[in-house]
Amino acid sequence: MGLSLALNTARSSLIATSTQIAVSARNTAGASDPFYTRKIANLVAAGGGSAVSIQRATDVALFDRKLAGTASAAASEAVLDGLDTLQGTIGDTGDGTSAAARLGALNAALKAAANKPDDAALARDAVDRARDLATSLNTGAAAVQTVRAQADAGLADSVATINDLLAQFEAANRVVTSGTAAGTDVTDALDDRDRILAGLSREIGISTVIRAGNDVAIYTDSGVPLFERSARRVAFSPTAPYSAGTTGGAVMVDGVAVTGANSPMPVHSGRIAGLAELRDGVATRYESQLDGIANGLIDAFAETGTDAGGQAVRAAGLFTAGAGAPVPNGTTGDQTGLAARIRVSASVDPQQGGDVTLLRDGGIAGAIFRSNPAASGDTAFPDRLRALASVLTADRAFDPASDLATQSNLQDFATASIGWLAGKRQAATAESAYQATLLARASDAYSNATGVNADDETAAALDLERSYTASAKLLTLVNDLLKTLMDAVR
Fold it and tell me: Are residues 146 and 20 in the same domain?
């Protein structure tokens, strides 16, 4: 009976050690996988021998920090990418192609023309500078809509990814819960499930709740359920094309909007939060600034005259938004989209067959708007050119939606707009770097707590090999004793 017990003990020890060696080999193989967690083979007493229970190293708090860091970093990166695109297209105050720089160039050209009103070349130069300014505003408006359209397309991609990951999570969660109920090793399945959660957190900020039987529920960081025993449907309708004033669609989770101004529970992090802020926040405010500049230019350069009935009338002068477009009169209510539509009036633009002397004399919108009192045209008439130069530095109202001063002159407003964009980009760069650092630290902390140390695994494997050898020798010894006993019986 003593030999039988020794045989069973040696055999169970050999099996347990073999399992431990296999677990150590799994750890070594998974050491380079950032989502692999260290597996721990625990010996437990079973039937007079030993059995192995496999667990994994885990730290729920650190994993949650890693998920939050991933989501915050993704949101910051999405905003920064869009601001980089805008900055690269529009330039800064030191760039001669920016609206602020071209406003300054127009002002200088108007003053030069006013000093020599009979010089057609100087008038032509002023019209050229006006055309350059309109082009800058057109380019800026187009860049804004491109960024908004790209953000919208990015939202569609993120939603598709989220739905795919939720489907994967549902399958992985089913494996975990069924394996847990059956008492099988689910540690690798838990790693797969965590890998999916990490991917999901890049797209949308999430929180998780672990329930009985290793089941997990997922919520957005604002509390909307994404997964509760089954995946919720995430929906989004892309908008195309984008133009000034276009309102993009909201991301919906099971019918609840999680982005947009009307969302009752907006998400705070993840790529979709960053893209929504870029599309509906930063870009639209910058669009309002460009429209405000265009609105101010059309207003400032508008012409006044008297119609046949003796009534005072106003019409677009040097700058126009097109035939029939309303002419602002110190107001900002109809400015949406003006930056995309502003042009130099054809009647004064030599590239369109216009007459540059109308800039000096007035009458760009028609004879009733003429300012030069000389019927045949006083070539030395400087008054209108001086007046046009002065309007660029005169204070006027701007839309509060622009996020800039509501009372300013055109030159200062345009300069402030470029500074606003540069400031947003600088802040986004700092935030992105900060969030990336937090994510790196959270990832390192989680890896140190749950990852595999190759040196430790090698040392453990050597100890297990010695234990295996000892168990094998004991098994051989017991076998020899039994053989001797059987031979004696015969």
Answer: no
Query: 443 in a domain, yes or no?
Result: no
**Number of separate domains in the chain:** 2
Tell me whether residue 350 is in a domain: yes
Tokens 């300012």 sit on residue: 371
Are the C-beta atoms of residues 40 and 53 closer than 8 Å to each other? Answer: no
Same domain for 285 and 354, yes or no, is yes
Please, where are the H alpha helices in 30-119?
60-90, 99-115
Q: Do both 175 and 200 map to the same domain?
A: yes
β-pairing, 225-227 with 216-220? antiparallel
pLDDT single digits (tens) 425-460: 999 999 999 999 999 999 889 888 886 666 666 666
Q: Does residue 284 sit in the same domain as residue 383? A: yes
Domain that holds residue 470: 2-57+454-489
CB of 346 within 8 A of CB of 358?
A: no
Output the pLDDT for position 1: 44
DSSP per-residue string spanning 207-238: EEEE-GGG-EEEEETTS-EEESSSBPPEE---
What global pTM score does this model have?
A: 0.85
322 and 367 in a common domain: yes
| Ranges of residues in the chain whose predicted pLDDT is under 70 | 1-23, 25, 30, 43-52, 91-94, 375-377, 451-475, 477-482, 485-487, 489-490
Amino acid at 170: E
Nearest Cα residue to 190 out of 200, 203, 180, 182: 180
- State the number of CA atoms in the 13 A half-sphere of 357 facing the CB: 10
For residue 243, give the amino acid letter.
Answer: S
Residues 6+ positions from 260 with CB-CB distance below 8 Å: 248, 249, 250, 251, 266, 276, 280
Residues 209 and 266 in one domain: yes
| Whether residue 124 sits in one domain with residue 231 | yes
Tokens of 260: 């947009």
- Cβ neighbours of 460 (radius 10 Å): 18
Task: In whole angstroms, give the CA distance from residue 126 to residue 132.
Answer: 10
